[in-house]
Amino acid sequence: MTYSTQMEAAKKGIVTPQMETVAADEGMEIQTLLERVAKGTIAIPANKNHTALHPAGVGEGLRTKVNVNLGISGDVRDYSCEMEKVNMALKYGAEAIMDLSNYGKTHDFREELVRISPAMIGTVPMYDAVGYLEKDLAQISAQDFLEVVRKHAEEGVDFVTIHAGLNRKAIDSFKRSGRKMNIVSRGGSLIYAWMEMTGNENPFFEYYDELLDILYEYDVTVSLGDALRPGCVADATDAGQVSELIELGLLTKRAWERNVQVMIEGPGHMVMNEIAANMLIEKRLCYNAPFYVLGPLVTDIAPGYDHITSAIGGAIAAANGADFLCYVTPAEHLRLPSVQDVREGVIATKIAAHAADLAKGIPGARDWDDRMAHARQVLDWNAMFDEAIDREKAEAYAASSQAATPGTCTMCGAMCSVRNMNRVMAGENVSLI
What we know:
There is one protein chain. This protein is of the alpha/beta class. The protein folds into three domains: 6-360, Radical SAM ThiC family, central domain (TIM Barrel); 364-400, no CATH class; 404-433, no CATH class. The chain has 19 helices and ten strands. It has helices spanning 6-11, 17-26, 30-39, 79-91, 107-116, 125-133, 142-155, 168-177, 186-198, 203-206, 208-218, 239-257, 272-285, 306-319, 339-360, 365-377, 381-387, 391-399, 417-425; strands at residues 42-43, 58-59, 65-70, 96-99, 120-123, 159-162, 221-224, 262-266, 291-294, 324-326. The strands form two sheets. An eight-stranded parallel β-barrel has the order 3-4-5-6-7-8-9-10, surrounded by nine helices. The radius of gyration is 23 Å and the shape is globular. The relative contact order is 0.10.
């Protein structure tokens, strides 16, 4: 039997090499994985042309995955720096990298990224349209937009964000409800502007079947973008956001009917007590498709620290059903992130993802913490560093302040509870002098 996509293979009962890798990495029975890929509750983004890929699954019963955004802008155009960010993201275990470059000809960097990266690669073709086509926004046709998607698919991109849910119906809900921050999605704002200037329907909605044909050919997963995601906590869970989510659910079913894998993108800013309900709503309206969230950021008042506000929201979101976290760096809302910003952002998000996996009871997640607990109990510092999510920082902190009492740190020294309990329970005396 032949197949073009992971979903089509699963529906036919074919176990692909990508499925075998995911099952082994996750400790999941292959039949369980096969059934969930067939239903769409797990996606394995794996473009046929991405030969360097180490496939990863996103969705039901799997570890929470982390995405890193990078790419040049019109103001900062240093591709060598972006490649440093790529290496940093891979070093700290990001499962996905999105190239969000939005200036000039971006295909050379994207092709190199696909060539070297074992992580899945995502893009937002809308960002590339103006530079690739060398046309101003209002002059771009619906077929032009599809041409850019095809080019990204040919280059080996594993998933693309497509803002297909921002149709006339969703826009009507947005306009009537009113918002503090309007549309903060960059791709969503461009689509909205194009629709308003041309008077046309969203081209990705109007020609959705043609889009799916392209994605099917290369097995590109469609990440249905949330153009109306809230950009501040005041706009969360409003009529525009929910109206678009309803449309995304309908588009999900249409994609699955064409054997195209789907992920759903979710809210950006949201207070903590709304997050769990939003995860439930998405899973219900979008038929348990994998959910990919940016943060959400749980407060708007921490520029410079939004990797923390995002990690808080991401942990809550993933513990309540989100499958894929898009990192946020300390530079969010302020500038294009530096290499160090990327490091801090990906580590904060990996911590959030792992914390959620513990809460969800993902098989194997607790083992990591148990190994760290054992290393601490026996005061094996090298083993602690081995288990640290950021070994370099842990070692540097420990080395920067030497305790007078061997085997301890300068927080407690001779009063180290672990050291003293080990001695007492071994029948030894404890002396603090």
